[in-house]
Design a protein that fits this description.
Elements (H helix, E strand, L loop, with lengths): L2 H5 L7 E6 L2 E6 L4 H7 L6 E2 L6 E2 L12 E4 L2 E5 L10 E3 L1 E2 L6
Parallel strand pairs: 1-7, 3-8
Antiparallel strand pairs: 1-2, 3-4, 5-6, 5-7
């Protein structure tokens, strides 16, 4: 099958619906939370405790903890290594995520 024929076959990739800070989004299945947010132009989803500096993805491999989010009520989830799932509620995280 040629590349042009596969484009017209009508196959649709599965998608995932989630919310970020109350706004609904849809992305292709299999993405990390960070990739899903970045694909919609969101590059910062956490603020530091000291100085309230914006943070997003830095290392992309789960080492640095700059990409922490609150996922389904659980704070301190690394967005760069966690896959987004249908129905996930993703929230920006302030500080360490425990209301401090």
């Amino acid at each position: 099958m040629s590349a042009d024929a596969s484009k017209s076959s009508g196959s649709v990739s599965p998608t995932v619906d989630f919310t970020f800070d109350g706004t609904p989004y849809r992305v292709p299945e299999g993405q990390t939370v960070a990739a899903a947010l970045i694909s919609h132009g969101v590059v910062s989803w956490r603020h530091t405790r000291v100085g309230e500096q914006p943070r997003g993805i830095l290392c992309g491999i789960g080492v640095c903890f700059d990409c922490l989010i609150t996922l389904n009520g659980q704070p301190n989830v690394r967005a760069c290594v966690t896959r987004i799932e249908t129905g996930d509620v993703v929230c920006s995280q302030e500080g360490c995520g425990f209301g401090d």
